[in-house]
């Protein structure tokens, strides 16, 4: 009986995708395996960041953009061809392969999509930095902005973030967090251009990382904390050593809203265990008297664990709705 000849299969195409947000050369083991076992490796982008590392590892890479037909022919005889995709993928090539497969006139090779690297958490922040760099250079408005000119936008975005939180709007919350993040990246980009004391977004991030680690010895050190109160004690103690402040009032911005300012002062006094009586007006100035009453209310709210600013905003919303009801408007204001 004659033996049946072993007919080679149609071969295999491996589309290797990589993330530009991960350092070149940091490929997964399956990706390196596929590259080493391939009969041919192709890459359409001669400036692809992976090419130097592939060649250094001994992988021969042919540059150029084959057509779908040429790629199928290259797989004949059971050969494996790996295509190192560009950052946008290879839509022209994959579309061509799909049309070729749909025609039914060609025996198609096996097609495999192999992710060679994955974005790490926070990787999209690199995109934001790159976009901000370009906008700062090319946009007529952004290129002229200063820290002082942008300050008002930081305040506005912070208030809009608070409003999204209080409204419980998750989609709005995501957007407003992005707007606040933009302010941080924008100011950091401007700071790079300072001739005397420049710093970058990496310096900003590095500083807050160091601060968080130092102020969380119960997480990164040998201390222990089992309650939120103990965590706050650690934080305040390490912060006091860092800042070397002589008064608990130092570091409290006086430009913040009045109720928040009063509550913050009361919080510092209570946490430090100081006995400081609340001041009282002499009754001659009505405005002064109301101010002291508001101060006492803010201190009382803080002692009860209530944010007086948030409480007042909630009450103001109810008042707004009552006004609109009397006006016959109805519904909530969208602006």
Automatic annotation (TrEMBL):
NTP pyrophosphohydrolase MazG-like domain segment(s): 145-220
Gene3D superfamilies xrefs: MazG-like (1.10.287.1080)
The organism's place on the tree of life at top rank: Bacteria
UniProt-recorded name of the protein: Nucleoside triphosphate pyrophosphohydrolase
One Gene Ontology term from the biological process aspect of the record: dGTP catabolic process
MF (Gene Ontology): methyltransferase activity; nucleoside triphosphate diphosphatase activity
NCBIfam families the record matches: PRK12334.1-4 (NF008988)
Organism: Streptomyces poonensis
InterPro entries: 4pyrrol_Methylase_sf, MazG-like_dom, NTP-PPase_MazG-like_N, NTP_PyrPHydrolase_MazG
Pfam families on file: MazG (PF03819)
